[in-house]
Every structure is written in C-alpha cells, then in structure tokens.
C-alpha cells in the first residue's frame, strides 16, 4: 500500500490542536460508510455532532422498514440522526445550520449535496471516494476496477463541489488488486483504507481558521478533467452473462459482481449464478455447457471457455463443480 498526499504533506498546525473537539457531521448510508464512521468514532479529537443517512426502506417480503448500516451504528453510539428524503428540505438545512459543524464528511451517502449545504461547515465538506480520482467517478468504482482488469486502485478524499466526485484532491491511498479479488473483498479493503485516509485528510485539511486558510495552504490539488472516467449505477440486469464475451471478461464480471447482483445465466428454464470460475484455454460454442476431459463442468465463451468451480441454482445452496455435474447431468452436451 502506498500513500499519495496532494500536492505534498505540509507541516501546518491542525485546527484540532487549537480547539477541541472537532465538530463533524457524517453523511453515509451503506456498510462502506459504516466502516469509516466506526473508525472516526474512535478518534478522541472528533465529535460526531450528527449523522445524516437515507430514510429507512422496506425490505424483504414483509416490507418492514429497514435502517441503513450507518443509522444502526449511530443509534448504538447515541448520535443524533437526520434522515431527509431530499437534501434540499428546508427543515433539514435549518437543522444542519444549528449544528454549527466544523466539517462535513461524506462516504457513499446516496444524494448529491447542493452548494448551499456544502457552504455550511467552517471547513467545507470532504468526501471519501473508492477510486483514484479522476478515474472512476460515480456509483460503482469498486466493480469497475475489477471489470477492467486494473492491477491497482485506492481511495481519494476530496473537497466537495456540486459536480459529482470532481473536487480538489486532498489525499489518496492506493492498494494492489489481487488476482482473486471480488467486489465484496475489495469493498471491505477499501472501506478500511478509506477510514484511515479520512482521518489523515481531515487532519491535513483543518488548518488555520476556516476553509480559506486551508485553500491558501495549497493542500488540495485540482483534478485533471482530461483523465476523468465515469461509472454507472449497477442494476440486477447487469449480472446477466453474455457468453459472446471472452472468458477473461466474464471471469472478471463474476468476481466484480460478487456478492451483488451476482453473475447468472439460464438453462432449462432455471437460473444459475456462478460464484467462482476459472479461464480455460479451450474453444467451444459460446453458451454451450460441456464436460472437460476430467469430467469438470465448463461453458464456451466468445474466446476460450470458463471452468465452473462454484455455482448456485436459484433458491438452492452453493454447489461445487462436481456437485453441479452430478445434479444436472441433463444440461451437458
């Protein structure tokens, strides 16, 4: 793991060395944000004045309202919770003003904050993003890194602007992507890395009396817009496998979309989700299930084939490749 500080680390007197504690409002919703918040709650120089998260949403068959992971953590620590349906809600903005925060920190919150909210805290609003910006702005940077076969990725902490993920970079940390990395494992590693980066970035950024002093200290650098790339929000349908793609592309998809939305295909009117696969240098008809010479299940792709190591029938348990062969012999030609 390497650390990049933009443009260079400056030896300046941190705000929290002058006035304790630092009043922080945390914006976040999923588990990625929860991991970051949990780390920050252990920092004695910070006071979590409030947590902002999305409203509870109906979940599962009973449609019972379910709280976000960030809300659950806030309740456990008796932190004030705000859950506006829309960030522009007048009552919500009034509540934020009354908190009189020193800084806002966001991580996978789920809403774009307007400039009138970003202007409220003394030192502005910072955001933790799971990529090395300006690469992979948007909703799915973790999956994009695996899908594209990147060898490294990381986290960026930026000063927020109204444009999505486009603000000046305060600090970045990078890590290598393992060849067996899944979306789930990389998510957890980047969340831990993001927590460390968030604390380091805050301590770098909070200098002088206000945001103007921090900007004058040239701690942050603007992003290179010519290198910006974007990701989209992933849907359930994105998990459907296109067997015309190469085995390399499909194997990356299987890892990137684990554990959600998964990578699936249909055979004999049943849905199967591939959990783990391996590239097989053998050419067969794309989409055709077949058995290798040693009786292992595989499927043809646009280029090469894919050896199925773990698979899950809809509504069933995860099967090994051999269990799949034994239970579904009629699928193999």
Automatic annotation (TrEMBL):
<feature type="domain" description="Formyl transferase C-terminal">
    <location>
        <begin position="233"/>
        <end position="328"/>
    </location>
</feature>
<dbReference type="InterPro" id="IPR005793">
    <property type="entry name" value="Formyl_trans_C"/>
</dbReference>
<dbReference type="GO" id="GO:0005829">
    <property type="term" value="C:cytosol"/>
</dbReference>
<dbReference type="InterPro" id="IPR011034">
    <property type="entry name" value="Formyl_transferase-like_C_sf"/>
</dbReference>
<keyword id="KW-0808">Transferase</keyword>
<comment type="function">
    <text>Attaches a formyl group to the free amino group of methionyl-tRNA(fMet). The formyl group appears to play a dual role in the initiator identity of N-formylmethionyl-tRNA by promoting its recognition by IF2 and preventing the misappropriation of this tRNA by the elongation apparatus.</text>
</comment>
<comment type="similarity">
    <text>Belongs to the Fmt family.</text>
</comment>
<feature type="binding site">
    <location>
        <begin position="131"/>
        <end position="134"/>
    </location>
    <ligand>
        <name>(6S)-5,6,7,8-tetrahydrofolate</name>
    </ligand>
</feature>
<protein>
    <recommendedName>
        <fullName>Methionyl-tRNA formyltransferase</fullName>
        <ecNumber>2.1.2.9</ecNumber>
    </recommendedName>
</protein>
<dbReference type="InterPro" id="IPR037022">
    <property type="entry name" value="Formyl_trans_C_sf"/>
</dbReference>
<dbReference type="Pfam" id="PF02911">
    <property type="entry name" value="Formyl_trans_C"/>
</dbReference>
<dbReference type="InterPro" id="IPR041711">
    <property type="entry name" value="Met-tRNA-FMT_N"/>
</dbReference>
<dbReference type="GO" id="GO:0004479">
    <property type="term" value="F:methionyl-tRNA formyltransferase activity"/>
</dbReference>
<dbReference type="InterPro" id="IPR005794">
    <property type="entry name" value="Fmt"/>
</dbReference>
<keyword id="KW-0648">Protein biosynthesis</keyword>
<dbReference type="InterPro" id="IPR044135">
    <property type="entry name" value="Met-tRNA-FMT_C"/>
</dbReference>
<dbReference type="Pfam" id="PF00551">
    <property type="entry name" value="Formyl_trans_N"/>
</dbReference>
<dbReference type="InterPro" id="IPR002376">
    <property type="entry name" value="Formyl_transf_N"/>
</dbReference>
<dbReference type="InterPro" id="IPR036477">
    <property type="entry name" value="Formyl_transf_N_sf"/>
</dbReference>
<dbReference type="InterPro" id="IPR001555">
    <property type="entry name" value="GART_AS"/>
</dbReference>
<feature type="domain" description="Formyl transferase N-terminal">
    <location>
        <begin position="23"/>
        <end position="201"/>
    </location>
</feature>
């Amino acid at each position: 793991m390497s650390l990049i500080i933009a443009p260079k680390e400056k030896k300046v007197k941190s705000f929290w060395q002058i006035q304790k504690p630092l009043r922080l409002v945390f914006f976040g919703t999923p588990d990625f944000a929860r991991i970051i918040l949990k780390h920050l709650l252990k920092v004695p120089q910070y006071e979590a004045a409030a947590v902002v998260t999305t409203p509870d949403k109906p979940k599962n068959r009973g449609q019972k309202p379910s709280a976000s992971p960030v809300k659950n953590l806030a309740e456990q620590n008796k932190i004030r919770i705000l859950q506006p349906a829309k960030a522009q809600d007048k009552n919500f903005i009034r509540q934020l003003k009354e908190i009189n925060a020193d800084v806002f920190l966001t991580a996978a919150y789920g809403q774009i904050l307007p400039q009138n909210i970003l202007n409220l805290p003394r030192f502005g609003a910072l955001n933790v993003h799971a990529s090395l910006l300006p690469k992979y702005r948007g909703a799915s940077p973790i999956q994009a890194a695996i899908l594209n076969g990147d060898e490294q990725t990381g986290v960026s902490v930026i000063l927020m602007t109204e444009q999505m993920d486009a603000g000046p970079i305060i600090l970045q940390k990078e890590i290598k992507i393992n060849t067996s990395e899944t979306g789930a494992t990389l998510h957890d590693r980047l969340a831990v890395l993001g927590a460390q980066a968030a604390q380091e970035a805050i301590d770098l950024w909070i200098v002088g009396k206000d945001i103007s002093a921090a900007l004058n200290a040239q701690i942050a650098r603007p992003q290179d817009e010519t290198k910006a790339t974007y990701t989209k929000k992933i849907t359930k349908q994105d998990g459907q496998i296109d067997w015309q793609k190469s085995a390399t592309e499909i194997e990356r998809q299987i890892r990137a979309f684990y554990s959600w939305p998964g990578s699936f295909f249909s055979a004999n009117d049943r849905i199967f989700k591939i959990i783990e696969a391996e590239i097989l240098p053998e050419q067969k008809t794309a989409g055709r299930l077949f058995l290798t010479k040693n009786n292992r299940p595989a499927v043809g792709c646009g280029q090469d084939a894919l050896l199925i190591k773990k698979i899950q029938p809809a509504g069933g348990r995860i099967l090994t490749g051999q269990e799949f062969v034994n239970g579904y012999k009629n699928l193999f030609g």
